[in-house]
Task: inverse folding
């Protein structure tokens, strides 16, 4: 399973939008800035691919999840 598949699987089981730190915690990666910034980069790539959406700056969700404010 690729790192991107693991990231998407975290969003499949999530109950709502997540921040990069949340994804790092779910994957058992450190919460230091270097890890969260690298994760944010990967999340932005998934947004560009259409797999995720950025609900607000730094807050990501699956595209199939409806976001009501």
Result:
């Amino acid at each position: 399973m690729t790192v991107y598949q693991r990231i998407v699987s975290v969003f499949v089981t999530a109950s709502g939008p997540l921040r990069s730190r949340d994804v790092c915690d779910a994957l058992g990666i450190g919460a230091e800035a270097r890890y969260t910034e690298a994760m944010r980069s990967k999340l932005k790539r998934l947004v560009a691919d259409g797999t995720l959406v950025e609900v607000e700056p730094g807050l990501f969700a699956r595209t199939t999840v409806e976001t009501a404010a």
In short: Helices lie at 3-13, 20-27, 33-49.
